[in-house]
Amino acid sequence: HNIYTYTKSIGEQILARSGVPFAIARPAVIESALRYPNTGWCEGINTSAPLIYLALKGPILFPREEETVLDIIPVDLVANAMIAALPRSPASERPTIYQVGPCARHPARFSVFRLQLVEAFRECPMLDRAGNELRAGEFNWVPPEVFFRKWKKRLSQAQRLRRLLERFKLAPARRRLLSSAIAQIEQLLYF
């Protein structure tokens, strides 16, 4: 159900059949740079950036257990690991597979992430389009079972509303929007 990991797998299979020597690096979730090209560098809005943006806009629920460890790694450390993993073995040997991620000695914990985020926005605030300072919003941590129970309830309500609109052939544009929202909630619950 995840096209990203599926296509990576296909690429690995093609390389394996090619006879070309190679190594495989499988990084954790890649985040902004630790040092190179400069601290905090990232291109575009990806990985945790949308979550940070949502947290800045106001209260949002995050599912987590107490002291959950984030499976993230800075992009420059991934680049260094990939260079170090360049294959040096003949094509006849099996490739080496490297898992590139945080270690048990230096885990990236949610609680520390939240504190660092609030501190970062105090030191270097973001501005909205009007030039007003955005303040770090509340991160509301809830146990996963509470988070999923809430979203399953919303899914059930949205499905009932869609059935009602379909039954009376009302608001086709709203039904399409509702179907899209239902698909997004189902995807959220799947992952």
Description:
The protein contains 6 helices and 10 strands, in the order αββαβββαββαβββαα. The strands form 5 sheets. It has a two-stranded parallel ribbon with strand order 1-6. The chain has a two-stranded parallel sheet with strand order 2-5. 48% of the residues lie in helices and 16% in strands. Strand 8 (126-127) and strand 9 form a beta hairpin. The protein has 191 residues and is of the alpha/beta class.
Outline of the structure:
The chain has helices at 3-18, 49-57, 75-84, 110-123, 144-167, 172-190; strands at residues 24-27, 29-31, 60-63, 69-70, 72-74, 97-100, 108-109, 126-127, 133-134, 139-142. With 191 residues, it is of the alpha/beta class. It is globular, with a radius of gyration of 22 Å.
